[in-house]
From TrEMBL:
Transmembrane segments: none annotated. It comes from the Bacteria. This is GNAT family N-acetyltransferase. PANTHER family: AMINOALKYLPHOSPHONATE N-ACETYLTRANSFERASE-RELATED-RELATED. PROSITE patterns: GNAT. Residues 5-162 form the N-acetyltransferase domain.
């Protein structure tokens, strides 16, 4: 029996769970910034205010999120949302990522967004394959953009229409 995945906009009370997901997910293998550890709940909430993410869970547990924001404050760029997504390591292959992407597509369409964009490292082929399965295409590549773990890594820019 498959567990039911729910989604909703993030709320202030989600901060501890989302901070923990960030701590577990973001590290030297998948982001050039390295390990992400928030210094405080306030710092997290300032960077990721309630409603700036869609959270997904099973039962009472938050299993992942998809963050979204316009790439710039320019009105001429407001039809685009930049994304970042993280799934708790214990919740992979449970439909969380797909549920988050579907929820974001619905919200983006509701808000008149026309384009979704994201960046992913070429050294993360699982993420690239997931994004492609969600309809994202490569729109550019910054070759040898980062030097990580002794090798140069391309930064892939991906997009899809809403």
């Amino acid at each position: 029996m498959k567990s039911e995945v729910w989604t909703r906009l993030s709320e202030m009370r989600d901060a501890p769970a989302l901070m923990e997901i960030d701590r577990l997910v973001w590290d030297e293998r998948n982001t050039p910034a390295g390990r992400l550890v928030w210094n405080s709940r306030e710092q997290f909430l300032q960077s990721c205010p309630p409603g700036s993410q869609i959270v997904a869970g099973i039962g009472g547990r938050i299993c992942g999120y998809i963050g979204f924001k316009p790439p710039t404050p320019l009105p001429s760029n407001s039809h685009v949302l930049d994304l970042n997504i993280a799934i708790h390591p214990e919740c992979h292959r449970m439909g969380i990522g797909r549920a988050l992407m579907e929820a974001l597509l619905a919200l983006a369409a509701q808000q008149g967004v026309r384009k979704l964009s994201l960046r992913v490292l070429a050294s993360n082929p699982g993420a690239v394959a997931f994004y492609e399965s969600c309809g994202f295409m490569e729109q550019g590549r910054l070759v040898d953009e980062f030097f990580m773990d002794g090798q140069y890594v391309d930064d892939i820019l991906m997009w899809r229409k809403v």
